[in-house]
Amino acid sequence: MSTHLAARRSRARARDGWAALGFLSPMVIGFGLFMVYPLIASIVVSLYDWPVFGERTFVGLDNYRSLLDASTFWTVLRNTLVFVLAYVPANIAISLGLAVWISPRIRGRGLYRALFFLPAVTPLVANAVVWQVIFSPGGFAASTWSSVTGGEAPNFLGSSTWAMAVVVMLSLWQGIGYNLLIFSAGLDALPEDVMEAATLDGAGTVRRFWSIVLPLLSPSLFFALVMTLISSFQVFAQPFVLTGGGPGDATETLVTYLYRTGFERFDMGMASAVAWVVFGLIMLVTALQFLGQRRWVHYGD
Amino acid sequence: MATDRAPRPRPAWVSQILLTVVLLCYLFPFVWMVATALKPADEIFRKPPTLVGSRLEWANFAGALDHLPLWRLLWNSVFTSALGALLVVVVSVPAAYAFARLRFRGSNALFVCFLGTLMVPQEVIVTPMFLLTRELGWDNSYQALVLPWAFTAFGTFLLRQFFRTIPVELEEAAMLDGASRPRVLWSVIVPIARPAIAVLAVFTFLTYWNSFLWPLVIVSSMDMATVPLGLQMFLGQSGNRWDLLMAAATLAVVPMVVVVLLLQRHLVRGIALSGLGGR
Amino acid sequence: MTRTLSGGGRRTSAVAAALAFMSLGLAACSSDSSGSDSGTTELTWYMWSSSEAEVDAWNQVGDLVTERYPDITMSFETASWADYWTRLATQAGSSSGPCIVGVQSLRVTGVADLLQPLGDVLPDDVDLGDFDPSILDAMTVDNEQLALPYDFGPLVVYYNKDAFAAAGLAEPEPDWTVDDFTAAARALTSGDQYGFAAFPNIDYFLPWAVNMTGRQAVDETGELNLTDPDFVEAFQWYADLVGTEGVAAEVPATSNSSALDQFLAGNAAMTVDGPWNLINAQSTASFDVGIVPVPAGDAGQTSVTSGSGFGITQGCSDTEAAARALSVITGPDAGEYLASSGRAYSARTAQQQSWYDNAVEGAQEALEAAASSAEAERTTADWTSVVSAFQQYGTQAINGETSAEEFLNTVQEQAGS
Q1: Residue B124 contacts C where some CB pair is shorter than 8 Å
Q2: pLDDT of B194 over the 50 cut
Q3: Which residues of C touch B219 (CB under 8 A)?
Q4: pLDDT of A231 above 90
Q5: How far is the CA of C6 from the CAs of A83, A178, B154, in angstroms?
Q6: In this predicted complex, what is the ipTM?
Q7: Which among A32, A126, A134, A261 could bridge C23 via Cys, Cβ 3.0 to 4.6 Å?
Q8: Which positions make up the signal peptide (chain C) (predicted)?
Q9: Interface of C with B in 341-400 (CB under 8 A)
Q10: CB A291 within 8 A of CB A226
Q11: How far apart are CA A224 and CA A239, in angstroms?
Q12: Low-confidence ranges of chain C (pLDDT < 50)
């Protein structure tokens, strides 16, 4: 380590610094204005009794305290966890299964992948309203149920047990497309002989899939898992449009509860507190995943 | 490729047919959407439900276009989505390059700060964001629809990951030739990163296209509304117009079908090349 | 759709604080805009709407203002019904909101803080005696007139004339009773066809409760009182139409009422709705639609009315001009225009005939009978959350998953505090 070299390095560093300033400033300015500022503002709001009309008063942590005291909060928290636990594994399993199924032996793979991806890009509101029609009492789902089982169909969107199931199904329909593409990309990148081994039928295929393909695919799997988990904690539009959170509070999730608190009851302070609870939960879960990733994610290099 | 080595117990065509059946079931809601769009209004909830109504009611499409200025809404959606995609690319490329290649004080801290915000649900900042855009005098405008969500960390993160896979040697060669950093970025990095940039543009476009909560809050006139908002307008206080709603939904879905079919070859390759798949 | 991946760390906060400081500075730089001084006043008015045709109609009404007062031009802003109240809430947080806003009588208590009392500001040519008194009363909070109505309506029973004829039933008369209703509903129910379409919308359930018990959901002192035993019993009766009686179908959980859809599809022969949907309903249905007042119960026959109108916001910078504009928007010419085009059953009694001319046969008789015993529906300040809780939890009660008592206790607890 000569001083000469160090000096050169620091000159290079200084030059880099100026370039970085230029490259980063548009992003940093916009980011500060449109992300950090509203974020900080929402912390401030969460410490106030902040009705939309009328006086706002500083209440410290009272919003958080009364949130934890409200039984509804625990119900929506449980609903959200139920949703996450039903949706995330099913999503990963189905999209991974489909990605493997659409193997090189299938003709027109690109077309199949694209069509399975389709519901992910059509407007969610459009998707949800069709599901509403299909699952309405006496609608297509109910009449199919009756003709298959011979019995009377459940009231899919009106029964507390079924409503959440339909919300999960809609979310899966809408959501597996992204992960399908991610897994497809991952599989395509695997060495051909590995795929050959995995797609061959006969004894040991399943074992080979578990012991060879899956570890090689683990970075994709990790990425998809993190993304899917985070988005599932934020689930909003599906229950909001499909069931309006009902029946009762059977499909009320953290974010629909947040929306209701802030924009129906106009309690911005409390809504911001809910928002920060959601944020905290997501941070926690994501941190856990990153801690756990060393155990099972194998990066190639 | 002509030599098939191993005999296959289950012929490929069985698998193909099964997959096709699954796909058709999967796409069934779209079929129902179009079929419903062609039914007379009073037959949509008639029992038992039938796929085709007593007559094909093409007038529903004209009715939907008449009920709302749908073309205008489609244009608003396309325009804001495209502008958003462009802006995100323009802002993210240099920022991602700075994080990927340049060494500067606070680089790591700033990047971690960026990444942290990836987890912020949009709902957390909608209210202050509304007050802010209002303060700027932007409410009910294109810039209000586009700008607030153009500075997310997603694009920066995605491109940074990709840029780091590009061999440094390419840049060093250009730098030795006297090229400046912006020049290197523009003529060396950007051409190589085209697939990743395309993926970012497409995904951003789709995010804007589907966004619901923000337009709901910021748009206050019909001529600035986007498609998802328009769809909401068919249901409400003065009766639900399911016939027109389904026609409008069909019109909103068709452009996406076209886009996806056109891009089908590039979807997976783009993701593979962009590193979005986690490698 | 989603963006993601993460890190999160302790160093974040310092950087974030610096950025925030910077951006606060930026925000402070943007200056306030000032109004124009060119002799004409542009007033922004904000109203819900659900179609381009409605927007056009309101713009026509806006033109009437400029015609009468050339110094005022009107700029119309809109949102769908569901989004309207969200937007109104968020806009109220800022000072540059609209001057004139649409208000529904059921929500007027909720937005009272946002509105100016009209008592002293209205121009002299406005005579409150021209309006239906019950709807005028419904737009009064703490003895202050906060809005002027343009339309109103008692909720009535819609019935399928063809289904009544097919079942060999005589069409209901304005003085029919709840027992007549139940008997008709039974006779009209067979297989997939139901006599009635229920839905847990508190406003649409209320007429039944009022006629059976004489009680509204909100008592005379303005307190929400859902747990009153009579009220509970009335709701249990309503839920039993689905359960023990089986004359109405179970309901789905949706954010938009399915009752009228089921009625129009011919799956249910009767439902409750307001006159504002009547002309649309007749044009959609493939059968003849009739209307009749909600049947009389043990407490007689009272029609609960609600309606919509316009008020002036507290933040409005030119109250005088806004009041003049308001007098035209809710004036006789606008009323005549909206009534004759079938858009609104006018709150001005003199203009109602133009609406009848377009409406289904028998509408005049039914609505006049209903109006003769009208009473304004009372609401609380957070009526939105009462409506929404009632609908969410009511789905379970109607479908028999919970009892009326449990359900009403829950709503009272959630929304009444």
Answers
A1: no
A2: yes
A3: 79
A4: no
A5: 22, 19, 10
A6: 0.85
A7: A32
A8: 1-27
A9: none
A10: no
A11: 22
A12: 1-37
